[in-house]
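Issue: copy button drops trailing tokens. Both records pasted manually instead:
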Amino acid sequence: MDRKKVMRVSLLVALALVCGSVSLWRMVTPSSRVEEASLQTAAATVEPVSVIRSPTTQARRGLRSAKLDTRLNVLATAAEQGMAQALDVATQQGAQVVGERIQVHVVVRPPSRVQVTGIIEALGGTVTGALELDFPRRETLLQAWVPMGMVTALASNVDVDLVRVPDELELLELPLAGAITIEALDDMNVGAWHTLGYRGAGVKVAVIDGGFVGYNNLLGSELPAVVTVKNFVDGQEEEDVNGTTVHGTACAEIIHDIAPEAEMYLVKIATNVDLGEAVAWAVDTVGVDIISTSLGWYGLTPGDGTGQFSDLVSRARAAGILWATAAGNDRLAHWGGQFNDTNGSGYHNFIQTNEINYVDQTVGSGRAFVVYARWDDWTYVTQDYDLTLWGYSETDHRWERIGGSYDTQDGSPGQRPSEYAYAITTGEYLFYGFALSRYKADRNVNFEVFTPRMYPLIYNVEARSLANLGDAPDAFTVAAVDVDSPYTFEFYSAEGPTNGAGGTATGGSIKPDIAAYANVSTYSFGTGGFNGTSAATPHVAGVAALVREAYPAYTVDQVQTYLESQAIDMGTTGIDTQFGYGRLCLGTPPSLSTPVFAPLPTWLFEMGQSTILPLDLWSYASDAQYTVEQLTFTIVNTPVAGAGVNLRDNRYLTLSPLPGWQGTTEIVVRATNPAGRWGEAVSRVVVAERIYEAYLPLVMRVR
């Protein structure tokens, strides 16, 4: 068997979009399936641990540096054979390469940042960005471009803790034609809000994504006539926002359908460092009101709501920004549980003596088989486990190892309790799977393993299947339901709860927070073509823009609480780990976009006395909720020549007719709410030769 062919690899979605075409992911019933009994026999034929770990076949024997991840170790070895080999390996891995330089992330301690930057430049490299991390320890993540032949030299420096391939975004969606409005507007009661004038005016929404192909052709139709674009991807210009994928364009289309007057910001990123820079720009430079992200990572944080993404979301929240993010699409592509080596082989036993968990569908050639594993050892990172990939040969009826990840976890700075392994499918194997093994550990850890876009796993755990970012406490995390009634829960939609402290299996919090709509139509993906929690998330961002416009005094907590309170409960009564608070719905809009006031009374008290005028804005409903709002009053006209009608302190209405005058006049008062909505109250008043004054009160409106 051509092992080189089998071992071709691709760096796929360390930042994985939680959407995609479900039609490409539907479970396939294999034409030829291995019976369960024979599969158990096959699993038992995994090479004995003594062979895999013997000095002559020890996978780590070929690793050049414990401070390089597995992929960079492979690259460093290839670079010794010449630049041609290094370029070939980098291309096979899908790494970002320009000339002879490769993009890397360099972990350093904060005091060493300047010194390491100088070292990178001395080696012919360039630092392009940085992200300050507080968890699991204070460290700086430098994003840099380094000559491929110099990665080992860089890692050997005492001030460098670790060098790894970036956790970056790679999206492969394809556009389809057709000018379309999403189907969920009526389900969310958006039409009623539009009718009353709530269309997102004055609200700023940032869509942070991996690309916005074709957005410029949709300006003034599927998107606002004017948008602001910003690109944080290394080596790209602002015009390159129109590149890589239509995914972000489709997200923006949904938001525009719901909030057509909102200001739109299209922000392109490729790594977690880029995300940090994008958030800083959105908070400090633009001052957006809402962020929408239909993306997630794996293995960068414990999944317990702590770490770099939680810090970014909390920063945005503190600035008054509602951040809607996707829960993930890996409910059936996830396994979690405690390491359990029942038969003493060094490998985890998923059930009985079975040591391989595999994708329960046949997989054609040319697809990336990517596996992420993380475990609960984030404080000191001393529990060292490995991840290997396997293919089941229908011809030989046995599992054969086709790849793996063997990063070092020995307590050194910069390390993570996670592994990332990849292989390109060749069609030579009927099934593809993974195994977990102990390398050097003194306790059985809790694992969370993801195989994005490859499902269902034969041994699947639906709970705790959230992507990193979706577990952040301050994120408004979105699950997916079908857009058509009865709004069925989408089988792939990630399920909570979050992990417990440090990545444990118990003690987590309820997530997601709310469920929105998938299988909707956009210009970019065609009729019914946009699905996943990627499609669901911008629905939440769009309706949040309407709420921000209607209730400009609301805090971000109040906006989220409003949407949660209006959600239509689904699944288990009350908040649950599939639907959150329920299906997204705006409920009844504030009853008056142009208020209709009751007439002013036909009497006014004399100067020195006052009354509360009955400026009722609606017919009281027994189930209505109210809030008190200060209106601004103005006098629209004074129909009686010479009569003085004015306002004092925006509270006291005063009428001063000329001496000797008496008769009937009309007083027209316009009241304007903080959102700029106004209505007029007109009264015919019989007056005599004296001054009248009335007190204009706070006026309540529907919440």
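Record 2 (pasted manually too):
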Amino acid sequence: MEQESRKKILIRNTQFGAVKTIIQYLLQFVLRTIFIYVLGKEYLGLNGLFANILGCLSIVELGVGTAIVFSMYKPIVDQDIEKIKSLNALYKKSFRIIALIILCLGVAIMPLLKVLIKSDIPTDINIYIIYAITLFNTVLGYLWAHNRALLFAYQRSDIESKIGILQILLISVSQIVLLLTTKNYYAYIICAPIFTIVENLLLSRSVKKVCPNLKGKVQKLDKDTTKEIKRNIVASSMTQIGGVFVTSTDNILISSILGLAILGVYTNYATIILSITACIALVTNNARSTIGNLIASKSSDYVYEKYKIFNFIMYWLTGFCAICLLCLSNPFILLWTKGATDYLLTFSVVVVLIINFYISNTLSLTATFNVSAGLMWHNKWKTIVQGLVNLVFSILFARWWGIIGIFLGTLASYVATPLWLDSHVLYKHYFKKNITSYWIKYILFTLITLLSAVICLSVCGLIPFGGLTGLVLKGLICLAVPNIIYLLCFFKTEEFKECLNLIKNFINKKRKQDM
């Protein structure tokens, strides 16, 4: 595949991914606003709690999906249809077994639900019925996971995005109408599995069009491929296990130690942070299959040059977004909830949340390159250590400092392994280069971001207005200050010049297409 084709694929996937993300979070914002006023923060907390409990069950996947999709990159480049068929059949079989195990484990957890909720359980619902519906929706996702994997491996995530947009519109409109007309949580929650089925039926139909040659008898995988998959599964499983403890335990700890009400307050911030993370992740998620294809067909030196450009973009985006979150989160939530201060977290808690956001997103591209280069084995203990540190320190700190302690535990887990290990593995085992230059750039960008944040906070603090006017003015400051500082600091770098060339080429091609 030529480089021009890769650029077109990446742009296409990113464009549709961006549209999907924007629509998803705009509608989620509207839906969440209605949800707050119709049902209240205890129900928000319940939503977040069940999502995290079922997120913990994803540990059963054990990295099977990651390992098999990685094995698809080379056969797709070589157009080895028989091998792709075999890998797809293995993926499908594996995830149906995983779906069954998750169903059984999910049912087994049901008697423990009240133990995980300290207080504030809404009296007009049966939490076991709500949990069962949520569990069923989760299981449905695993039954059709092989379709998403194929589209991803074939670099056609744009199709998944188009179908996702339709599904988001249908479920959001339905839930909004039901909330306003019935004010019934059961009616709200039942929409999810109904539209999950619709979405996956459409995905199945699309896969048949994109991959028409995958029908017929499936051959047995060769020993070398099987051995490689098993090795990668072992490594990925450790990543999966640790990842669950890092990403899926905070809500459970908040609920069990502090209660559903404060969990409901936190989930508003989590939604904002996740929406921004999803926008940034468009760079990594839509580039992942392109990176895998690139690594399968190009030299490590060539890939290294592209990695530096991608990393520069990630640093800039993440730094800018972190500053916006720092300055605008509390004013936005205050405006959103019509001045309800009981929906606010303290500024110190917000600071810790945003530090975690910054570290996580600045490291995400390096983690993507590690997976795409098949380096999971070298990283196999990373998330196990990170997950254990997160769990132990979050519980310990929460007893001393409350909700901020839980997020300090997460921060400690980032420092424990991924902050330094991801880059070490990539530079040592794939690029085979000295890592000093990486750390110089990372520390430099972090210091410049910190300086920009201090300036933005100081200027925003001078604005005497509140409400929408104050939020808009602060937003304009956040838009201008960090980007001007970044521009002044980096306009002479090779990475910036290359990014500028990419933008110019993209604009010129668009102009030619419109002529």
